[in-house]
Structure prediction request, 1397 residues.
Amino acid sequence: MRTLLAFLIPLTAQIVAAQSFEKDVQPIFKTKCIACHGEVPQGKLDLRTPDAVLKGGAAGAVIVPGNSAKSLLLDKIVTRQMPPGKNKLSDAEIDVIRHWVDTGIQAPAVILPEVPKEREVLAVLQVRCMVCHGGLKQQGGLDLRTMASRLKGGKSGPALVPGKPEASLMYSRVANGTMPPAAMAKDLAVELPTDAETELIKKWIAAGAPGPEPDAKPAPMVSESDRKFWSFQPPVRPAVPAVKNAALVQNPIDAFLLQKLEAKNLTYSKEASRLALLRRVTLDLTGMTPTPAEIEAFQKDTAPGAYERLVDRLLASPKYGERWGQHWLDLAGYADSEGFGQDDSVRPFAWRYRDYVIRSLNADKPYDKFITEQIAGDELSNDWKQLKSTAPPEVIDRLAATGFLRETPDQTNSNERALIAERMNVVADEVEVLASSTMGLTMGCARCHNHKYDPIPQRDYYSLSAILQAAYNPYEWKAPRDREYKLALESERKAVEENNAPLQAEIKKLQAQLDAIAETFRKPEDKGNTKDLQKKYPALATKTKQLDTDIQNLRNKLKPAPHVRILTDNEVPSVSYLLKRGDPVSFGEPVQPNVPAVLQNAALKPYDPKPPFAGASGRRLALAQWMTQPNHPLTARVAVNQIWSRHFGRGIVASVSNFGRSGVPPSHPELLDWLATEFVQQGWSMKQLHRMIVTSQAYRQSSQVTPELLAADPDNVLLSRMNLRRMDGETLYDSLLNVTGRLDTKMFGEPAPVDVRPDKEVVVKASGTGFRRAIYVLHRRQTPVSLLDAFDQPAMTPNCTERRRSNVATQALHLMNGSMSWDLSRFMAGRIIDEAGPDPVKQINAVYLRAYGRNPSAGEVKTGQEAIAEFAKQWPARLAADNSDAPRTTNAAWLALANYCHAILNSAEFAFID
Amino acid sequence: MSNPTRRNFFSSVVDGIHGAALASILGSEMFAPGLFAAELAAEEPPKGPQIFDLKPKQPQFPAKAKSVIHLFMNGGPSQVDLFDPKPALKRLAGTAPSRELAFAISNGKESGTLLPSVFEFKPRGKSGMEISSALPHLAECADDISLIRSMYGEHANHEPALFLMHTGRTIASRPSLGSWVTYGLGTENQNLPAYVVLDDPKGLPINGISNWQSAWLPPLYQGTRFRTEGPPVLNLNPRPEVPAKLVEAERALLAKLDEAHRKQRAYQPELDARISSYELAARMQLSASDALDVNKESEATREAYGLNDPATASYAKRCLMARRLVERGVRFVQLYIEDQIFDNHGDLESGLKYACGKTDKPVAALLKDLKQRGLLDSTLVVWGGEFGRLPMSQGGGKPGRDHGPNGFSVWMAGGGVKRGYVHGATDDIGFKAAENKVSVHDFHATILHLLGLHYRELFFDRNGLRERLTDQFPARVVSEVLT
Prediction:
């Protein structure tokens, strides 16, 4: 009650000369604002008198005297949110008000609530002190987390003497400026407490340091009507509708789609040609063009069910996991480097997560298990905590799975970039990754204010954030280097030992020689080690220069100890707060870990975290268990929609990461719910879902567009045809390698390195047998492979829920003039000659089969023949000028074919999927 | 996609997301149970897929400037040594800083005492604007610029501060100013990129390519790096080992193949865009080479920029290229300078002399050249770094200064900007902005305003949120610097 009273004390504005309220400001308010903010004030805001303006409204204070930039009133009028309607304030009027706020009205004395609450003090201590005096470290024996530990204090005595601020070290040391120590502030990534914060601690102690209040039951902020929105209700399995043209129904997907088409007197387009379909589904499921052998096998299989057998074969291929793994890595925001800045250091074992994803998909791991391991693999069992250095593959995999929430940029390895704001940014990015990829929610807006379109109060954002804050504790932060868990496979450890042991022996030997030389320089007064001696005696340093270099060279060859990048909890989580305006030091109420209120309903078991074992909070495990309930409103819907969108180029909900009110409503809500429930019934099998989608008649349609279709279904929302699409960057890159025979099929492990050329083009380094698939290329944020970058490979900021497809000139330049496409073309020409012999007709046939997955028409053969003949005329002169020793005619034929292949690889038909 | 056969665009992105048009944002952020439902009643139906392109767009209101040259001064130029005279520092020289000031230094052990400038300030031109002796050439242009002495940032480290200056937030992952401008206005010359970055051949600035990223804006709004040595764009020229006639013949074959392919697939704008992009690539080879060929300039011009002096040659070349690019209708040109040349932690005097020695003459020449050609009226030139420096010394020996984000100077010149005008002030020692403070959001809002764009109205619908360069921060157009 006392707190409340403090705010009711009338605030008296003291008007100074600069700008007068009556003369300058009131007339503007009268014409533009008083209608709503007058006698019957909207939002409890009355703008008739200076005192009333100072008092503010339901949203709190609207002006901060002397600081217009921080005044809500100015924010509202400057951003033209207020007044509503056309009668906005002019810039000049805004300036008058701004000037008045800045200079015309004096701040009343700061009135703090008379007795600050313990939670307010705790917040200050958490952000300013606990890096040294918290759960991870207790410098000087001091732990500031609880009342008891504050009273107990540390080596210098009690930190807290209730009623006596000056005798309480937790106040006096802050007040006199010794704590936090300025000289160490940057090393500890701590910032100076503000005067208000220091004053808060003082007042609290002076008032007798009252202890924490019992947790209040949070007020309901989301109503039943908010929960009624379709995507917040569990999916209900609809009946499969009957359609007129039942012959077109391969499975229920077609029934749902045809129902809507037939309602508009439309139907499917005719089926795509067999070979077009082969190319489409092969690219779609494996990310690569079909090989001539695959084409031949498919053409020979004329028995019924050939297409279904093909689909089974493709889903069983290990390439499936590499293709769909990339889709998932997009959602996770996978990268092999820590940040964006200068020091974009490589994350040495990040690839374990990539491998986990590929392996899981190939094994058709049920989706519920898949996301549970990624959200809380570390909490499923504590077996890994018993292990010292080596672990079996399944344990490594389960820990590596938590890499899902370790992918966003995290520059906090540098203390200078590990301030509270940057730490909170890491947490916020992870919340965004989690919510956008698995829940289809845009939580980001609620970081700073209640969500404007969805019933997600800011409190719910911080409750979700609190789930992650047990592991990403912003107040007792662990930098990425402190999150490397030293476990590895026996074989990896052995390999490192075998590499390092002889090197270390050699280093030891050289070091002994070095020390011996150094000792000859030592005088009785010298106490230091060899390094100190080298510093003191330049002659020694000169003499041992070679030895130093040799030792350093040996050290550089040492392999780092293998480890797993994991996410796991701090022993005891700190208290999480709602952060006003998203500002990491503007603390609101404390929040409990929880899932958004709008998704809590009677049909679902509540979110209920329990420690699965000591040292784990169970917050993330409870989240995963809550999310993977069969009737969860979002999990299955979001997953099937993501997969659908990658097959068709558009989701049933077109805004794949926004199932909220501001998202796009589903084009086929019944189909979405049928698929979601079917997905769960099929044991969350992703391969089953793919199979159903790609064997539907919808998927088998031609992509031809006619004027009639365009008029009736302009954006193909009804799927009256297949969408024609350009390959994404990785598919194009992998297919170039596949078609030209330069693909190195090695799976898993350390990524293929990249090279930055003098002209700054970033290229992939070839392995002994060619180039690995794009998913295995080092994905360092600062050095994206130029070719992939040009083709819209995402920059992971922090993740990518939907690829964009641009068609820009730089792409053409890369493919036309880049060295890679020309080198590959020559390689391809050589292979074609080996296979097809010298006959251009056979060569052209082979080129078409590889690149386009079809045979050329007679006209196309003729065009090709003429082109190759034309190209062949130009080469002999060039070869002669180069004094090439090679047989010129043969060489000219080869290079002419290379030109032809180069044109084919540059053609639209190669890059587009019918 | 109302006109499915159109092929007159240069390049485009088909965007999967579908700007959901949103209910207008009104009223208080407080809400009562159930309020969402009411608030959302007025929601408009979602739009179909959008097509993004670089065709020139009308500004939202008449623009004062058509194009921007952003001279980014990496490292944090020292305001009290270049633009912001502080006689009080002479008086206080050698005294200890306040605790707040001492806390501002990154390494507490290096905290020194208040340090006056070794450079001399003098009133310049008719305006009497005070500029230090470190910038003798710019001093001649004092009557052409608007100097803002009251900028303030949010972070004392390079990375976040660069992000803030480029994208409006201290975090990675948001679109840069140049991306926003080209998203809003497109570009006048379809044979050149809309947003060109001229980085120093000696190396990328801090944050590297993220400085000109489009983030979640469509990728065609990302800055294109033009190299200032050798071919300006990666793979701009055909492979030398392939005879030129063959390059032509191959292109002819490609055109034939593509045309046949396209004929069988009507109404596919993405396919059309792809084919157009190949045509543009061929045109760009000519136009980019021409635009960047500074040898086509007169000897007098080359001399004026400092191309003949090894100290200034590199930056002079980029300044001259920038002029040739805006002359050809490029919307946004951004220049960088080697390393963090203005990051003078130690030996401030020689460090600043080096940095200014490289840039001062070319920058002044650029201003004079633009003015003389009548281009200054339609071009906005912006000069500044990511922050300023502290008024106290850092380190022993020849002292330097540490980063100071709380108050620093930037200037702008050109279309719509007052000439010979000084805005705002820092405190007596130049530590913090004190009068008429200008935030980075204000600064961005002002740049957009000069280009005819309102910072609140230039938005991009992303996952149901209206994203802006100034995000949700309060911003204000610095109307005082406008003509």
